[in-house]
Every structure is written in structure tokens, then in C-alpha cells.
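anyone seen this seq b4? input:
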Amino acid sequence: DLEKTKTSISISKLIKLKLGDTFRFVIYHNARHFQQIKRILTCF
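predicted toks r here
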């Protein structure tokens, strides 16, 4: 269950996120990196 299962984050074991929120964060974080890569590649 994505709403009930909690996961610790690597920064602090005291902070726990719902599994669904963890997935959302990872997806957003990776998408941001891909946007940065695209921006860099347009410079070449």
C-alpha cells in the first residue's frame, strides 16, 4: 500500500515518507536531471 508503507530517507533516519511520496520524489528528481541534460546539450 503506497499510502501506508513508510520509508526512511537517506539524509535522516528520523524522517519517513509514504512510499508513494518517495516514488513521486524520485521521479521528479530524475526528470529534473533530464531537463538539465537537455539544457546542456543545446549548448553544443
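Residues 6-43 form one domain. The chain has a mean pLDDT of 94. kinda curious what u guys think
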